[in-house]
Amino acid sequence: MTARLLDGKAAAQQILDDIATKVGARVAAGKPRPKLATIIVGENPASALYVRSKQKNARQVGIDSEDHRLPTETSTEQLVELIGVLNRDESVSGILIQQPLPTHIDLFQVVIAVDPVKDVDGFHPFNAGLVAQGLPGGVQPCTPAGIIELLDRGGVRIEGASAVVVGRSNIVGKPTALLLLKRSATVTVCHTRTKNLAAFTKNADILVAAAGKANLITKDMIKPGAAVVDVSANRVDNTQIGDLGPGVEEVAGWLTPNPGGVGPMTRAMLVRNTYDAELRRRP
Ligand code: NAP
After folding, report:
1. Which of 35, 44, 39 is closest to 62 using CA atoms?
2. Does 231 contact ligand 1 (Cβ within 6 A)?
């Protein structure tokens, strides 16, 4: 079997085109252009690259962006102060704080400082709580939302599927598990203390690999015909690879390319969340 590709690049482009049309219509009707404010603290080349790509996608659909760069020694209080300014700025629709932040910064204080209405990452506990409880009105975090969208567009049946998520971070693993559960998959979450990871992955109709460990998931750990989503962005010899070993495409039924799978979808979901954030304030 050769797996069908869950093409994140193509799906993301369709989503961006759709938002571009909507933004164009709003602007033509005299409404303000949405704006995404981004914040980077410190010098991290990968963060700078990610934020540049996010701003580029925003620009492509007619969403303005505003770039804030703070030095590494910025304190939690200074960062929270800037977030307060952006919360009060009428022209800003959404605020993105690129992670990782320097370790001296209190991430919780930063996350709760963002006005939930302008929280385009879905990390504020108010929004995350709504998503966890399956209630309307929350903000779905970008990577998990992109994963569900990719599965749906690929025709993968989620309801009733046995889904295994490898990774339990607040950004990827945990919210992905919650979104799969909301869609009535039977979900297992694996992590570093999981005994016999293969015993779980081998039974997964849907496998989401988000451990950040190159070659963790080998082809003998895949159930034939499974939908496999490779989230991780590991750098090996200056090249991005995921968590999958060679030959997984021979066993899986569906597979995300990496790169070109979850990454573009994450950015498309950020753009969508920014547009939705603008709509929440100014319908
Ligand atoms: P993270 O915070 O480091 O979490 C990694 C998770 O994987 C942890 O829960 C960890 O378990 C688990 N894990 C690590 N090694 C494992 C092993 N050998 N067996 C089982 N579980 C293992 O990372 P993250 O922020 O969730 O991101 C995960 C990956 O996705 C990274 O490579 C990141 O770069 C990538 N990512 C990609 C996108 C995208 O748009 N494509 C977006 C976000 C993240 P413990 O909890 O027990 O430590």
Report:
1. 35
2. yes
